[in-house]
TrEMBL record:
Record's protein name: Probable nicotinate-nucleotide adenylyltransferase
Species whose genome carries this gene: Arsenophonus nasoniae (son-killer infecting Nasonia vitripennis)
Pfam families linked to this entry: CTP_transf_like
GO molecular function list: ATP binding; nicotinate-nucleotide adenylyltransferase activity
Family note: Belongs to the NadD family.
């Protein structure tokens, strides 16, 4: 039995979610999550593209275009699937409300995890009803270049210390309440960087899946000046 098979056998029941605008989806989204899945033993990660993000400007690409790019990016990759419930909302997509809707579907005993980056972890206390998030799920945190795991305030740092677990196996033993800081690749890629490259007519082939890049070029996305 390989190490990856052992990990999968140890963690068969964790349902993991990964949300974002994905405007566009890129290797900075996909590769760290793939590494995280190997560490934790995730069998599937559900991508949750949102319609109205509460903490950033409205996406440039349309819902249809972003969804098409996600489908192209994960084609033939069984790790990923897509859930479109947030795309159907006309109000801001609050994580706590999405997590609650999943809980109502899967029950309260199954381990549920939400994947975020270090940057999001450090600003989590600005999220709507953030105190309720760990009552609904675990947090799986991907490393991000330029960000530490230290909060600027002592109460938030104590919150992290209280919930952090060193061993991902713990995540499968309870439905929610833990934070796992994963050792994932430090990829300095952002959707903003991609949009700026396209406007400047610079290559993006090193940071985008080929099918996504072809779609962007075919539909002339991200070419307008800001």
């Amino acid at each position: 039995m390989t190490q990856q098979t052992k990990q999968t056998a140890n963690f068969p029941s964790i349902q993991a979610l990964f949300g974002g605008t994905f405007d566009p989806i890129h290797y900075g989204h996909l590769l760290p999550v793939e590494a995280l899945a190997k560490q934790v033993g995730l069998q599937q990660v559900v991508l949750l593209p949102n319609h109205v993000p509460p903490h950033r400007p409205q996406p440039e690409a349309t819902v249809r275009q972003r969804l098409a790019m996600i489908k192209l990016a994960i084609k033939n990759n069984p790790l990923f699937s897509i859930d479109t419930r947030e795309l159907k909302r006309t109000t801001p997509s609050y994580t706590v409300e999405t997590l609650l809707s999943f809980r109502q579907e899967i029950g309260w005993q199954k381990p549920l995890a939400f994947i975020i980056g270090q940057d999001s972890l450090l600003s989590i206390n600005t999220w709507f009803d953030w105190q309720k998030i760990l009552d609904l799920c675990h947090l799986l945190v991907c490393a991000r270049p330029g960000y530490t795991t230290y909060f600027p305030t002592s109460p938030m740092q104590q919150w992290l210390i209280h919930h952090q677990v060193p061993d991902p196996e713990i995540l499968s033993h309870k439905p929610c309440g833990a934070i796992y800081l994963a050792d994932t690749p430090l990829l300095n890629i952002s959707a903003t960087q991609i949009r700026e490259r396209k406007r400047d007519r610079k290559s993006c082939k090193d940071i985008l899946p080929p099918a996504v890049l072809r779609y962007i070029d075919k539909h002339h996305l991200y070419q307008n000046c800001v």
